[in-house]
Amino acid sequence: MKLNLFYNPLLFLASPLRAVASPVQFARPTAGAVTYGGKPLHVEWKYSEGPETQLESKQYSLYLCAGGNDINTYEPLMPLVEQGLLQEMNSFSAVIDPKLGGESPNAYFLQFSVEASNGTIFFYSHRFTISGMTGAFPPHIAAALKAISGTTTGPRTFNNLHKRQVGAVPPGAQADLPYNEQTGPTRYAPVPTPPPTKITLKSAAPLFPTSEYKIATTKLPVAKVMTTISRPPVETVKQIENTAAAAADHEDDEMQRFLKRWQD
């Protein structure tokens, strides 16, 4: 099945801080639905009709989130799809680890992010409940859920098209913290340091501390870190005009001499 995503980029550029109608609509889970931890979560979405445009990137990411509706009051808990292709599918199923979060009515929702030429657009589903969860929410997430108790509406469409961010990170993530201080199932590696143009040192101290580890002697528990995302380095491109005259075309000179033979 071939699917196209519809949106008007001029609308985003003209009103970057304004809420816009979402071209991505979730069919499952429905608003207020109840699913179960440890069992598959079935997700379906569709694209609304509108002016046809083509995104420079056909990739999208899908995350399970929990928390409030405002930025910095919710967090992505688990990546369901990373760098998926828009035209390949519009449904997905994944087993939810019960330890990912707590059991609170309508605490969970989905985040669908799509790359554009100058930023990232985030779309959100309605809220739903995951029963049988055995984990716990951080205090700020629990407080945000208490503040929106009784609603099934998820966060509004969010975009950062007005300012391009290299390696865009979903709102509420902890990409600016040192790796060993980050919490949650998604971690962000630091930006790689570009190599120098000259080698001047015989040896160098490590930039970051080594990661702690233990040698497994028994069966290990479920991993707390589900994925690590490396942020790309910032690149600067400088354009310089070439003012040199074009070289003479030898073949063109021969053609001119050939044509002069027929001027008589």
UniProtKB/TrEMBL annotation:
**What's the domain of life for this entry?**
Eukaryota
What are the annotated GO cellular component locations?
extracellular region
Q: Which InterPro entries match?
A: Kre9/Knh1, Kre9/Knh1-like_N, Kre9/Knh1_C
Query: Any idea where the Yeast cell wall synthesis Kre9/Knh1-like N-terminal domain is?
Result: 29-130
The biological processes this protein is annotated with in GO are: (1->6)-beta-D-glucan biosynthetic process; cell wall biogenesis; fungal-type cell wall organization
Q: Where is the Yeast cell wall synthesis Kre9/Knh1 C-terminal domain?
A: 176-250
Question: Which residues, if any, are the signal sequence?
Answer: 1-21
Give the protein's recorded name.
Uncharacterized protein
Protein's organism: Coccidioides immitis (strain RS)
Which taxonomic lineage is given here?
Eukaryota, Fungi, Dikarya, Ascomycota, Pezizomycotina
